[in-house]
UniProtKB/TrEMBL annotation:
Sequence ranges assigned to domain AMP-dependent synthetase/ligase in this UniProt record: 249-585
Protein name per the record: Non-ribosomal peptide synthase
A single cellular component GO annotation: cytosol
Entry superkingdom: Bacteria
Pfam families in UniProt: AMP-binding, Condensation
Length: 602
């Protein structure tokens, strides 16, 4: 990272382009009526474009500035720097870009006598001691000297200085092109420059082979990087071809019917009781004509009925749509209409909506005495919807994210296996249903035979209440968003939570300071999870380590059956260390960016 007073510390990486490759470049240059210098400059600019995402690329180039024959035999320093600026159109052909670059180079070189310092003076750009004005990258072609009576040998001096962010120097010799990249060690690590060099060499070949292709189609990955990324993304795991989380819950209800499934307000509900209540709700919904993939809204505060309602909806083959009682009526009405919810499960004290479009079952007033409690016949599978959860939406309008049973099953099975969750665990459910973390808080304990500890309404942000519940209920596994974890850790000087062994953090950036504070006060494992709602809550995880010395907490490795590719604006995969974008799709048909999943060639 640059400081206000730049030191100009630098290093260099040498490389070579063989005779055969240079012959191809020269042949290509002749075919396109350009010079070899123009070809290598084009590759340099295109590589900067690929890595930075910027289309306005300015590169400095030194010139001899001996424009008249009278200057040829005069000893002295006449050199100057010209700046070749290009506005790269990603949809243009490579050959057309090269032709435009030729025009700009010839135009700039016709004015090479105009001092660069005067250019800076006239343009008067914003000055900074951290940056060279006008350009930060330079392409420096070097010529081999030939005399009849003397032999010459180029010697590269290691000065450990870099006047620019990066300098590319090339010399044509009998052995091909001798190259060196000089770079600022304040900005770049040597490993990244080595990768840049390999990318440059590959791009030179691609320019020749893909001259009539669009710039956006030029590969951004080295061949070995394609193999490496494929290996990173090889996360295949088999959990069972047709399994669902409901299968796992019902298995627990059969194996451990009298075990405690959930705790709420000092009351216990067994697996048998919860399963039978969910079965009755499912039979009611089926009697109302609910079919697979239809939506049933859940408008309930935390309670055993909330959990039974979610399970009952799943048993009926429908998808649950969580509605938060803290939301304005207008927002809730929109979500009901947008999701096409056919029914709504609620409690009578929450009766405040105009629900003309949906049938409502108030579970606190409905005993279900006349409804059978056996498991309904299954009429859905992994491909069917499990839930639709609404995000806040970047446009201000809530957007529903649809997740099927296969994705949910994968997520829960991965958590069970990775974190070794079993019947001994006691897991807090404190996240409102409108947030995606609630999905695994509900299903993870129930499919593993563990006990879910439900927090009372509106108390999930009270550090004192949380501490009391964790201690009283012997909670072993819980989730915090970083802001709430910070408040929790600051709420007292000493912690006595012997049962707590795992804390999951997600939803916001987890800072190194917060990680260190956690390990100072608690004897538990902190795990950082990362991912969007569209990917079934998270796609990566990291076991935090107080001895990890980076200035950021990593987001780690991929969860099972997930892939991550960092793509540029042209949807080409980028190498490690570069910033890209993710394009995704919401339920409801909203136009946002491209609004489609893109088939990735990788």
């Amino acid at each position: 990272m640059l400081t206000k007073n730049r030191s100009y510390h630098g290093d260099s990486i040498d490389f070579k382009i063989g005779v055969e490759d240079v012959a191809k470049l020269n042949h290509f240059a002749a075919q396109n009526e350009v010079t070899l210098y123009m070809v290598v400059l084009a590759a340099f600019k295109l590589l900067l474009f690929q890595y930075s995402g910027q289309t306005d690329i300015a590169v400095g180039s030194p010139v001899a500035n001996r424009v008249s024959s009278e200057l040829e035999n005069i000893v002295g320093l006449f050199s100057n720097t010209v700046v070749v600026r290009s506005n790269i159109e990603r949809g243009a052909r490579v050959r057309d870009f090269l032709a435009e670059l030729k025009r700009r180079v010839l135009s700039n070189y016709s004015h090479q006598s105009f001092p660069f310092e005067e250019v800076v003076e006239q343009l008067n750009p914003a000055r900074s001691a951290m940056f060279n004005p006008i350009f930060q990258y330079i392409n420096s072609p070097r010529e081999t000297l030939h005399t009849p009576d003397l032999s010459w040998k180029l010697v590269q001096c290691e000065t450990n200085v870099s006047k620019f962010d990066m300098s590319l120097m090339l010399t044509e010799t009998s052995d091909g092109l001798q190259g060196a990249v000089e770079f600022s060690t304040e900005l770049f690590e040597a490993q990244h420059i080595r990768r840049f060099v390999e990318g440059y060499k590959q791009l030179l070949g691609n320019i020749v082979d893909m001259a009539d292709k669009k710039i956006l189609s030029l590969p951004t990955l080295l061949r070995e990087e394609q193999v490496e990324l494929a290996a990173w993304n090889d996360t295949h795991r088999e959990w069972g071809a047709d399994g669902t989380v409901l299968d796992l819950f019902e298995q627990q209800a059969r194996l451990r019917p009298d075990a405690v499934a959930l705790r709420f307000a000092d009351q216990s509900t067994s697996y048998r009781q919860l399963d039978e209540r969910a079965n009755k709700i499912a039979h009611y919904l089926l009697a109302q004509g609910v079919k697979p993939d239809q939506r049933v809204a859940v408008y309930l505060d935390r309670s055993p009925d909330m959990v039974a309602g979610i399970l009952g909806i799943a048993k009926a083959g429908a998808a649950y749509v969580p509605l938060d009682s803290s939301y304005p009526v207008e927002r809730l009405a929109f979500m009901l209409e947008d999701s096409n919810a056919t029914c709504l499960l609620s409690h009578s004290q929450l009766r405040r909506l105009d629900l003309a479009a949906a049938r409502t079952l108030y579970l606190d007033l409905w005993g279900g005495e006349n409804v059978v409690a056996h498991t309904p016949q299954r009429d859905y599978g992994p491909q069917n919807l499990a839930y639709v959860i609404y995000t806040s939406g970047s446009t201000g309008k809530p957007k529903g994210v649809m997740v099927n049973h296969r994705s949910l099953f994968n997520r829960i099975c991965w958590m069970q296996k990775e974190f070794d969750i079993g019947p001994a665990e006691r897991i807090i459910q404190k996240t409102p249903l409108s947030f995606d973390v609630s999905v695994w808080e509900v299903f993870l304990p129930l499919v593993t035979g563990a006990t879910m500890v439900l927090l009372e309404r509106d108390k999930h942000k009270d550090p004192g209440y949380l501490y009391e519940v964790i201690q009283k209920e012997s909670v072993s596994f819980c989730h915090f968003v970083p802001a709430m974890l910070k408040s929790f850790l600051q709420s007292r000087k000493h912690f006595s939570l012997d049962s707590l062994n795992t804390v999951i953090c997600s939803g916001e950036e987890l800072t190194v300071q917060l990680q260190n504070d956690f390990y100072t006060l608690l004897d538990a494992q902190l795990i950082n999870l990362y991912g969007p709602t569209e990917c079934t809550v998270d796609v990566s995880y990291w076991y935090c380590d107080p001895l990890h010395n980076d200035n950021v907490v990593p987001i780690g490795r991929l969860i099972a059956n997930s892939q991550i590719y960092i793509l540029n604006q042209d949807l080409n995969a980028l190498p490690p260390g570069y910033v890209g974008e993710l394009t995704t799709r919401y339920a409801g048909g909203y136009d946002l960016q491209f609004l489609c999943y893109c088939q990735c060639l990788y």
